[in-house]
Amino acid sequence: MEIVKRIGFIGLGRMGSNMVYNLLDKKYEVVVFNRTQEKMAEPIKAGAIGSSSISELVKLITLNETPGKPERKVIWLMVNAGEALDQVLAELTPLLKEGDIVVDGGNSYYQDSQKRYAGLKKLGVSFLDCGTSGGMGGARNGACLMIGGDRESFDYVKNVFQDLALPDGFAYLGQSGAGHYVKMVHNGIEYGMMSALGEGFETIKNSDLNIDLKEVAKVYSHGSIVESKLMGWLAESFNEEGYLDAISGEVPKGETEEEMKKLNEASHMPSLASAIKVREESRLKPSYAGKLISAMRNKFGGHKVNKA
User: Fold this and answer.
1) Which residues touch 204 (CB under 8 Å, ≥6 apart)?
2) Average pLDDT over the chain, rounded to whole?
3) Does the pLDDT at position 151 exceed 90?
4) Spatial separation of the C-alpha atoms in residues 287 and 277, rounded to whole Å
5) Statement: residue 18 has pLDDT above 80
6) Do residues 290 and 282 make contact, with C-beta atoms less than 8 angstroms apart?
7) Is 104 strand, coil or helix?
8) Cβ-based burial of 298 (10 A; exposed 0-12, middle 13-18, buried ≥19)
9) pLDDT at 69
10) Based on C-alpha coordinates, what's the Rg of the chain?
């Protein structure tokens, strides 16, 4: 079985940089590129190989190949979905050869991933769509990965998924688009869970019982049915002095919100519809639930918050 130990990595944002550190810990040779060159400084210091362009990244990946035995290049993309990703692919694709593998680990819409898969397949290049969950901590210490695309390509890259994920934290889910579709539904569930927690704490806050929300967060986080990573991040928010006070009750629009609207239109997920409405209404009338949703998003993904 082939073991991939050299990988190109494009996109060093909050998630991407932590995934690179994770790979370096596992003794991978990682060649990195980021449009904002300054973001490469810390990964390079940690042992990654920097490149000044996508074309140089591809050259550096092939630098140590055995003469006469070209290897299949594996390039992982952690780039914003949509136009930014298409721009990277437009630059990268002419540099690839038959057998190479591109992994999109971002939050792309699954039908867009299917189109990218079809376009690259005509060139003999494989495209795997990989939904990535677990936040920045997961990216650094073990993520949850949901993968779609050709099984043969998945098997070739399997050791990379295994090393980036927690035990049992990755799965091959089937044809192109399956990984990003499952991640999209995961995001819809996540929206509903965060909204439910925010609304619940707002309800307790608005009661006339003068209940300490910090204590509620503590007890909910230890043995209750609603104990979860999200509940843990919410408890952290209450414990960090001044943290919640500094956050507005307006939830900034996130990268996945348009995708969630598409999911809501195509399926019957009332909790998702409600969660989207809560976020949109918070931008017109900031709410305590909005403040807590913003805090959870910031804790797990480093997402932007609006200041109070």
Assistant:
1) 211, 213, 216
2) 95
3) yes
4) 12
5) yes
6) yes
7) strand
8) middle
9) 61
10) 21
Rounded average pLDDT over 166-190: 97
CB-facing half-sphere around the CA of 182: CA atoms within 13 A: 21
Look at residues 11, 13, 10, 17 and name the one whose alpha carbon lies nearest to residue 303.
13
At residue 164, what is the residue type? L
* Catalytic residue list: 183, 190
In 3-state terms, what secondary structure has residue 249?
coil
Return the pLDDT at 71. Answer: 82
The predicted structure's pLDDT at residue 4: 85
User: Nearest Cα to 47, choosing from 65, 64, 25?
Assistant: 25
For residue 289, name the pLDDT band (cuts at 50, 70, 90).
Answer: very high
Query: Taking a C-beta distance cutoff of 8 angstroms, is the pair 77, 88 a contact?
Result: yes
pTM, two decimal places? 0.94
What order do you get walking across the sheet with 126-133 strand by strand? 49-50, 29-33, 6-10, 74-77, 101-104, 126-133, 143-148, 165-174
**pLDDT at residue 67, rounded to an integer:** 63
DSSP 36: S
Phi, psi of 130 (to 5 degrees): -125, 105
- For residues 2 and 157, give the distance between their C-alpha atoms in angstroms, rounded to a whole number: 8
pLDDT at 65 over 70: no
What's the pLDDT band for 268 if we cut at 50, 70, 90? confident
29-33 and 49-50 beta bridge pairing: parallel
Backbone angles phi, psi at 116, to 5 degrees: -65, -40
Amino acid at 27: K
Query: Cα 29 from chain centroid?
Result: 22
Positive/negative CA dihedral, 163, 165, 168, 174:
negative
